[in-house]
Amino acid sequence: MPKKASKKGAGSKVSMTEEDRLLFLHQRAEAEQAIAKKKEEILTQFLKDKLQKEEKNTAVNLNKLTQQWRTVLRQTRTAELCRDNDADHQSFERHFDEKQSLVHKFTMAQLFCPTDKVQAGPVKDESTVLQSLCFNDKCRAQEDSIAALRLKLIASQKERDTAVQELRATKETQQTCQQTCQTQLVQARALDRKLLITLTIQSSAAAKKLQGIISTAILDYADLARFWQRYNKVLLERLCLAKEKDVLTWENQQLQALLRFNVETVEYKNISFTVWDVGGQDKIRPLWRHYFQNTQGLIFVVDSNDRERVNEAREELMRMLAEDELRDAVLLIFANKQDLPNAMNAAEITDKLGLHSLRHRNWYIQATCATSGDGLYEGLDWLANQLKNKK
Questions:
Q1: Active-site annotation holds for 281
Q2: Is 391 annotated as a binding residue?
Q3: Nearest to 83 by CA among 161, 149, 165, 17
């Protein structure tokens, strides 16, 4: 039983055609290339994510340092303001006490001194005494303020030195942290570069190996070298046939649009007229040229009441008469709607259409009214006579 199974498996391997085997090898090579490319993309994405994370951490650390530095400066400034406030308060209390003692002394001197001496004492001495006292107070206050400023300056220098030392210490710590982070980042990049190099080497080796397998397979199956050329040729022929089909479809649609016009056969004075009634819409005008061949007479109907579109009618008429198929055709113009009050007469329409410029063509204009039939037979008589004379 196992021998039969092995024979069956061998038969299935033999049943694989050469084209299927080549296609299988090609698909396997594409799959291995896709796997290698996917590994490279995953590795690059990992490196990008890691770099973004490290940049984010550095930004957070810098923000923390700035916040700590701001809090330290705020605390030092608050302490300085508190000390200045205390010093000002003490100096104010001292000056106030001195003034109070001076006033008390002066009042006591006035109370205990005899009245005759007080009255006899010159006022000038009192003013000089007061001035000297005020001057002494000012000098003392200036000295106190100078001493306070000196003390404040010394304290601020000490605080500045301490703050500078703290900032230097924090700066050194941050520099060390930054250096460690940079070293770690460099190590991580080096490791990632090594991994990338190993992956590229492995992928290139696998690609070379696969390319060698494919080259050997191609050499083994040299008869299939022109397979893709034949396939491309068939594909191009298919595209050409599709394009030709589109062109034939468009021509069929044009012919269907042409066959929608009314065709009538009219007999008048022993002459059979095959009349094609074509419309005057803008989308139908390009189809007029299909009726010019073997045309002996042209009947052009003009709306006599529409003065605004006479120039457009003239352009269309001149465009038709310029065709080679209508070189020998006679021209009959029906000036229709003559029953309306504002309708143009035949002479005015002749000038508007520029019929006098048609020197080498037989033309005739007839005023008509389609509702009553006036003028139709006169125009057909002229057309019949012209066609008889041509015969």
A1: yes
A2: no
A3: 149
Residues in the chain: 391
- Range of weakest confidence among 193-197, 211-215, 223-227: 223-227
Close Cβ partners of 98 (under 8 Å, ≥ 6 residues apart): 137, 140
d(CA 24, CA 11): 18
Extract the tokens encoding 72: 């330290």
140 contact partners, CB below 8 Å, separation of at least 6 = 98
- Quote the distance between the C-alpha of residue 347 and its chain's center: 62
Residue 381 counted as an annotated binding residue: no
80: closest CA among 163, 187, 21? 163
Which residue's structure tokens are 């500078």?
164
Per-residue pLDDT reduced to its tens digit, 349-359: 888 888 888 87
Is 336 marked as a binding-site residue? yes
Question: Three-state secondary structure along 147-161?
Answer: HHHHHHHHHHHHHHH
Instruction: Note the helical H segments in the chain.
Output: 2-15, 18-112, 115-120, 123-220, 227-258, 310-321, 346-353, 376-390
Q: Which run of H or of E encompasses 289?
A: none
Considering the candidates 281, 293, 296, 386, report the single residue annotated as catalytic: 281
Q: State the burial class of residue 87 (Cβ atoms within 10 Å of its Cβ: 0-12, 13-18, 19+).
A: middle
As assigned by CATH, the class of the 256-390 domain is alpha beta
Summarised one tens digit per residue, pLDDT across range 186-201 is: 888 888 888 888 888 8
Is 175 annotated as belonging to a binding site? no
Where are the domains positioned within the chain? 15-217, 256-390
Q: How many CA atoms lie within 13 A of 76 on its CB side?
A: 17
Report how far apart, in Å, the C-alpha atoms of 263 and of each of 13, 227, 282 are.
72, 56, 20
Residue 359 token pair = 């020197």
Angstrom distance (rounded) from CA 360 to CA 330: 10
Contact present, 155 and 83 (Cβ < 8 Å): yes
Distance CA 333, CA 375 (A): 11
